[in-house]
Prior knowledge:
This protein is an all-alpha fold. The chain has helices at 2-5, 30-42, 50-75, 80-93, 112-125, 129-144, 148-168, 177-188, and strands at 11-12, 21-22. A two-stranded antiparallel ribbon has the order 1-2. A hairpin with an 8-residue loop joins strand 1 and strand 2. It starts with a helix and ends with a helix.
Amino acid sequence: YHIKFDPGYFSFNGMNYPYGEYIFMVDNQPVFSNSLKFISNNLFDISYYSVAILNLVMMGSLVVSSFFMALIFTHYKFPWYISIIGAVAISFLASNVLLWQYGHYALSYSCFFPIAWYLIIKFQTSDNKIKYSVLIFINTLFWFFIHNYLGFIILIFTFLAYLFDFIFNTKRFHFSIKKLGYFVLQIIFPA
């Protein structure tokens, strides 16, 4: 409805007549729906295919989830065959997949958590921390624009990674302005 009939990008007139509703509160997946709306309005009309495109993106999230789970398993030095089997099994058995049948389409992306987890691992193990801080920020913001719950889950997970790093590595942990900057970029800015 939003892609085909709404005049603007930030309101949804398919409910709450006659006032409409703010796009972020109606499970509308603003990143995808507004991208499709822009393409339909300015390039060529794909509004008739929008449901199919969104369904393919949801199913494609299983492949992306499997890929990032395999990368996580590989990081933790699992054998390659266990990594692949485990990644596919976890991705297809994720509870997010069950949300397809109940209409919570924006919450059904099972790849949001493995991507965030992998970026946090890379941030903690890499020397290029600013690169991964920016990627964590972009990833968190992206998922906030898919659904508020997904972004908030990633935000809490990132905060807990910092908290547990502080608790369990107090001897290695030292305060610095750089670490505060990483924390602000990854947690405060997206919130």
